[in-house]
Write a structure and sequence with these properties.
The protein folds into 2 domains: 11-207, 2-enoyl-CoA Hydratase, Chain A, domain 1 (Alpha-Beta Complex), CATH 3.90.226.10; 211-257. The chain is built from 11 helices and 10 strands. The chain has helices at 35-50, 72-80, 88-101, 118-125, 152-160, 162-170, 177-183, 195-207, 211-224, 229-245, 247-257, and strands at 11-16, 19-24, 56-61, 65-67, 107-111, 114-116, 128-132, 136-138, 175-176, 188-190.
Length: 271
């Protein structure tokens, strides 16, 4: 890239059919999160969530890393310039995490390299975490004398248990892919050169599925994590009614009775 060349977009958003791919695109910085990247990521996640044509989302990175978290070089430059930096959690990470976890369609993290700090938080917020066998996870917050952000204190204990979560946070180190799989941080390991194809295969499968059902299942599970059993039963009733009214339910029943594959459209019904 020459001095006159346009600066590459820090996040690339692309839609192919019913699958949206969001790609961190700062390989020279291991996809560290500067302000421009955080703003672009939030915009991309919200665009995918709001596009009815998109029925599955893939989040991945370019180069050697998935995302190594906060850009500490920019962070230090802002400190030296006397700028306020303590608001990035509220202004950037929290909205990104709420948009990711509230996505009304499946989200796949295709973890192509190390996922550290907020990068690990983003991956843990996804429904599936496919990882290259050369990838790794580092809960790096204590290493820079910070507390967890990007939802790590919520998602991590739910994946690995409270005691292990505290251990990983207090003693941060890069967890190799195989160990991360054992702990539940990764869903599936894939040879590095097969990761993109495997993520696309899963995304296409999910994009052809009952989107309203997927969204309702995700909402029910998230609700149940913080509510009583009785309250969760009420939420299940609400979600079941939403699914019952969607065209895909009758299509699924008809296909079952007719012994054929269902053709799901992902459309919502009238409430």
């Amino acid at each position: 890239m020459t001095a006159d060349s346009p600066k590459p977009e820090p996040v690339v958003y692309a839609v192919d059919g019913a699958v949206a791919t969001i790609t961190f695109n700062r390989p020279e910085a291991m996809n560290a999160l500067d302000v421009a990247t955080k703003n672009a990521l939030l915009a991309a996640v919200r665009e995918a969530a709001g596009d009815p044509k998109v029925r599955a989302v893939v989040l991945t990175g370019t180069g050697r890393a998935f995302c190594v978290g906060q850009d500490l070089r920019e962070h230090m430059e802002k400190v030296k310039a006397g700028e306020t930096i303590g608001n990035t959690v509220r202004e950037h990470y929290n909205p990104i995490m709420l948009a990711l976890t509230g996505m009304p369609k499946p989200v796949i993290a295709a973890v192509n390299g190390v996922a550290a700090g907020a990068g690990a938080g983003f991956a843990m917020a996804c429904d599936f975490r496919l990882a290259a066998d050369t990838a790794g996870v580092n809960l790096a917050f204590a290493g820079v004398a910070l507390s967890a952000d990007s939802g790590g204190s919520w998602t991590l204990p739910r994946l690995v248990g409270q005691a292990k979560a505290v251990e990983l946070l207090l003693l941060p180190e890069t967890i190799p892919a195989a160990r991360a799989l054992e702990l539940g941080l990764f869903t599936e390991l894939v040879p590095t050169d097969e990761l993109a194809a495997r993520a696309w295969e899963l995304a296409e499968k999910l994009a052809a599925g009952p989107t309203v059902s997927y969204a309702s299942l995700k909402e029910s599970v998230a609700y149940g994590a913080t509510h009583t059993f009785a309250e969760t039963l009420e939420k299940e009733d609400e979600m079941q009614m939403r699914c019952f009214l969607a065209p895909d339910h009758m299509e699924a029943v008809s296909a079952f009775l007719e012994k054929r594959r269902p053709n799901f459209t992902g459309q919502r019904g009238d409430l």
